[in-house]
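hi! just following up on the protien thing from before. the input was this:
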Amino acid sequence: SSGINAEYGDAQLNENELVLGEFGRLKDSAEVFKLVGPLLVKQEIPVAVSTVKKRINFIKGELERCDKNITGSEEKQARSREALAKIQQQYQAKMQAAGGAPQS
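and the predicted 3d structure came back as:
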């Protein structure tokens, strides 16, 4: 499956929010560099800020998708548990009607 897992996503989100906060503390004369392979390439601060904000939005979207998947799985699991309990009740009722007690 593509995407990120929730634990990794939370860590990435925190890291990027810290970076965004650090950008806000930079002096006007500061220089920002981006690691591209083995090279550090100078980057304009507004471009770097925009990139980090886009990354934060992407990560938040992925985390929301993870949460929806988890919620959907939990709901499916609850429905399955209810169906199983109903089948067990029906089985026990049939066994009692037949005069035998179910063996545990």
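The longest helix spans residues 45-97.
Strands lie at 32-36, 39-43.
cheers
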